[in-house]
Protein: acetate--CoA ligase
Organism: Alkalicoccus saliphilus
Amino acid sequence: MEILEPKQGTYQLEDYSRTRETFDWEQTKEAFSWNKTGNVNIAYETIDRHVDEGRGEKTALYYSDASRDEAYTFQAMKEKTNQAAHVFKDLGVKKGDPVFIFMPRSPELYFALLGAVKAGAVVGPLFEAFMQDAVRARLEDSEAKMIVTTPELVSRIPHEELPHLETILVTGDSSKADEHEKYVSFDEKMKAASTDDSAIEWVDLEDGFVLHYTSGSTGKPKGVYHVHKAMLQQYQTAKWVLDLREDDIYWCTADPGWVTGTSYGIFGPWLYGVTNVVRGGRFSPDDWYATLQNYKVTVWYSAPTAFRMLMAAPKEILEKYDLSSLRHILSVGEPLNPEVVRWGWDVFGLRIHDTWWMTETGAMLICNYPSEPIKPGSMGKPIPGVDASIIDDDGNELGPNEMGNLAIRAGWPAQMRKIWNNEPKFNEYFAIEGWYVSGDTAYKDEDGYFWFQGRNDDVIMTAGERVGPFEIESKLVEHEAIAEAGVIGKPDEIRGHIIKAFVALKDGYEPSDDLQDNIKKFIKSELAAHAVPREIEFKDKLPKTRSGKIMRRVLKAWELDEPTGDLSTMDDA
Ligand code: WTA
């Protein structure tokens, strides 16, 4: 299986090479109503435009979890998001204000998120697993005045320590809202709000709409700021790469707390006007196959870890379901192993199309296309309208099969416009004139296919989620027993990487299994379940530079039994 040839058929991107030569982003503008009216708002284009164009009765959202099973038309979504926009405006939200959404998946999450965007806010989605410290760090940095949450999650918002935070909208009945003067009942406000569209704020294409906090290898999580203009690329890739058609039933498995769950769980598919499936609750093979079967999903966007978990599940589970509706499968977030592509081919008779992009890039950049051959293990080729290259540290472009920095020619439509309150961080990405440097290492082969080789910083991708070692290390050293901590990603068959922590204990503490458990619980309760180190190794001392920085590089070498390299900067080498 060296190369998987495309199936015969018609595709939204018929001729990749020719489109690369002729395409111009100006062409995409014709898809949007602002091209005629001048009124810009991505949420309007996502929902209301379809009602204007006669698709009001089409199902926009199928939502289900263990206790709910609901459907909403575009007309219903329009009314709900208008109501939410009124709620935010009545409470004083102004264009450009950050509004956070901290909720597990539910229809209300989608109403609130799109309603806030309609009201002109910049939405900060927070993953539901975040605990107090993770929530605090993000609300402090953004200085957000408002957040929407649920009765279950509200206690994780330390509002006494967040002077900027004025209003906490809580879903459900009004009983929670009585508990504190900052608490307001979201449901009561929604009921009282008008469904008319007078709360829609018209904005500029360069105004912000989403602020995704993400992790780097150093420092606190950073707020990646995206603008309404991202819709051009989200729409165009929904067409070319997701290959969407009018009657598709589309399922993106990502949570809107991560960028895939907004760019392709909300905006891409709805800018295109297809029916979007959202399944709440946790992963289980039965539940996922049932979702594919029951909704007759045609296009499915997921991640390698999920595919690997399905692959590892007993075959009998798969055999119970009829998955014949599936037409197109895609993957993102981590390297897609050729074994997984092979499995997809065996069990679905379909190729799994890898896509590469990042929180910072806002939308897909390097992809496989239904009309092009796939080389299993390769991320594919840059979308038309975008140039990608492999460059060395001085910005020289490298030749075929030479490994270097994966870089994108700066200026694509969905590119982040800033890092919230942190210009130096933003500038680091663009330090090489004309290029955005991704932090990934890759090479490009003689046919122009890109091959991922790894991160060249310490960012950990675990089960498709991006975790910064610094945030975990900072939390670990707050534990009473820990003097020093270093965190790395350790390769893992299923999850890509797992989090491994090396810790040195304070005087008076001894390594033990109980202490390990206690440390794991501490991270789980204060940071997030997905940030818990699955392995903890006790050390007398950690390798540090003379300036006191933990050398994760050395920890990794220890872990992998590899040479430690140059230790000249190490203290006490
Ligand atoms: C990694 C997720 C290999 C990469 C949309 C990148 C990938 C980081 C792929 C961004 C892929 C994403 N193959 N690695 N197809 N897609 N990555 O910001 O290291 O959560 O830099 O965005 O995920 O993660 P983020």
The mean pLDDT is 95. The chain has two domains: 16-443, 458-560. Residues 458-560 form a domain with the GMP Synthetase; Chain A, domain 3 fold (CATH 3.30.300.30). Residues 214, 258-260, 332-335, 354-359, 379, 438-440, 452, 455, 461, 466 surround WTA (CB under 6 Å).
